[in-house]
Amino acid sequence: MSAEPQPRSPEVRTSIDPAGFRPLPIVDERAAVARAEADTLLAQANKMHGEAQERARRAVASAEEEARRIRSSATADADRIRQEARVEAAQRQKRDDKLDTWAARAIIAGTVGLTASGEYALARMVGFDQTVAWLLPFVIDVYVIQAFRRHRDIIQAITLTVAANVTYHLADARLFGLTPTAKPTWWLIAMVASVASLILWRVHLMTAPPKARRERQKPAPQTASTQRQEAPPTATERPTEAPPTPPAKTTTSADNSDRQEARSGDDKNTAKTPAKKTTPGGRKPAAKSRQKPAAEKAPRRSMTEWVTLAEPIFHAEFKRLKRNPTASEFADAIGKAGHGRPSDSTAKNIRTEILDRAELPTLD
């Protein structure tokens, strides 16, 4: 076998003599030094690359930490600004509410003062003593305030105070209600004297608990569609006919033949038309009414009891309907709750009392 040629090393130089002898390899020192230097440079380059990667990692981590800090600081500043804005808005709203409240009170005080002066002078004009004349503006102004609070009789209250002041000023200018001798007429005295009783009646209507109205049940009109159709009677239900009574006088054969023909014709008509079902005594059966049973009537209760029972029902209906229930819907809900169904007017008054005593529930 021939020997395989050995690969030549780049750093070893060999010389072959002509006789075919292979001498020992000669090591090139410069190549070894160059390789050592190359290994050193490669190690330094790898070290520098690792240091560069570490510096880059540290720079990215530092940048992310700085970004998190900036975001956290910005979020905290935004929350602080929003909180300050909410506080400022709440304070502004509180100031506006106070301003509105005191402005309304100032307007009410000024209006009461102006109208009360005219009403007091009117009472003195028609003859009221000064010790009781101040009661006329007192009852009129309290009636106006009560009407505004309960949202009832507002037009009547405003009309009354306007009429009282206009009457006084016209009478004071000698244009209305005074005689030529500057004395009040009898009808002006009667009109002013009846104001307190009129106010007493209107306040009683506003505050007294309403009486439950009794709703009369009207029968539903009977129509052909509501009447129960009767089934044709059977042969056993047909009324039995009494046997014919023999005639007192003798008849001829011609009369007998005529009667037989008429009876046969009646029998045919009876066979064609089924007989109606009869009841004992000859009375017709009464048609069954399809009218719904009336709702259970509500017992008499005071307005305080009604409000205590119906307030949870009203709030539940308000949340279910997403609006203020009507008087009929509210009355039906009270009836379904087992308290008896009040009339629509009673339910309306109960609803008004509930709205006066508490605020509407918040819708989700």
Biggest sheet features: 2 strands, antiparallel
Count of helix runs: 9
Distance between the termini: 101 Å
Using the CA coordinates, give the radius of gyration. 56 Å
Tell me how many strands there are.
Answer: 2
Provide the low-confidence segments as ranges.
212-218, 233-242, 246-257, 278-282, 285-293
Which band does the percent of strand residues land in? under 5%
By secondary-structure content and strand pairing, the structural class works out as mainly alpha
Regarding quaternary structure, what we see is single chain
The ordered H/E elements are EEHHHHHHHHH
Mean pLDDT across the residues is 76
State the share of residues found in helices, binned by percent.
55-70%
Overall geometry comes to elongated
Strand order of the largest sheet: 1-2
Q: Any overview of this molecule?
A:
With 364 residues, the protein is mainly alpha-helical. Among the domains are: 117-207; 303-357. Helices cover 60% and strands 1% of the residues. It has nine helices and two strands; from the N terminus they run E-E-H-H-H-H-H-H-H-H-H. The chain has helices spanning 29-125, 135-150, 154-172, 186-193, 195-207, 253-272, 303-321, 327-339, 344-357; strands at residues 12-13, 26-27. It has a two-stranded antiparallel ribbon with strand order 1-2. The protein starts with 11 loop residues before the first strand and ends in a 7-residue tail after the last helix. Mean pLDDT is 76; it is low at 212-218, 233-242, 246-257, 278-282 and 285-293.
